[in-house]
Design brief:
Blueprint: E1 6-9, E2 15-18, H1 48-51, E3 61-65, H2 112-141, E4 144-152, E5 167-170, H3 179-190, E6 197-199, H4 207-212, E7 219-227, H5 242-261
Parallel strand pairs: 2-3, 2-4, 4-7, 5-6
Antiparallel strand pairs: 1-3, 5-7
Helix pairs in contact: 3-5
Amino acid sequence: MNESTFSLHPGTTPLVLSLPHVGTAIPHEIRYHYTDRALEVEDTDWHLETLYGFAVALGASVIVPKFSRYVIDLNRPPDNTPMYPGAANTELCPTRFFNGDALYRDGMEPTADDANQRREMYWQPYHAALRSELDRTRDKFGYALLWDGHSIRSQIPWLFEGKLPDLNLGTASRASCDASLRTQLTQVLAGTQQCSFAVDGRFKGGYITRNYGRPDAGIHAVQMEMCQSLYMQEVPPFAYDEAKATHIQPVLKQLLQVMLDWKPSHD
């Protein structure tokens, strides 16, 4: 595995935290293909390593990539199948910003060969490491828990109408985790008066949640897509807002604690 493309902190509990869109690097050899604006990587899931900084103390494994989703999207299928048929979708090797504008200079979009190379260099090592960590965790504890963390601007008309709910839990329409775990996480969200929420709404979970979430095989996965307005400035320079973050971190910590406290039934 090419660990230069990601970092992995092995934990001491069944919980694995994946943050696939926090990377900001673009390889030097392809930077000139992108527009100047693209090099600012505005569609990053900014500061999630900081926001979820408490996860290590909880005993979670944490895996994060170094390279931007503009290079390759780690939460898309390797064959580039659309995750949300009928809606605007970002690609395995994205060619557009979240507002639909072009990421690349004219004629410099990635070819099929480019996409294959990027999949081999960046996508496969991350997923090999994630799979290995989930298998290690399941072998040790008898089950594994995957929390796939994301964030996004609260309003992006090209991707969804209106304002996104603050917290969006995805369980692949109940397929990626045990029903009782989904219920307990939903109860936490329902009890959080400061935030709006949705469960299996516009964001049901991307490739990571859908691919790895196999309750029958002992792996329970959920995705959390949260509005960046909860903890940061949504416009450049995309600054982290410590005051806001201190209000939402207890909610996130409570959700992860529910994951850790939950045990699969062996009926």
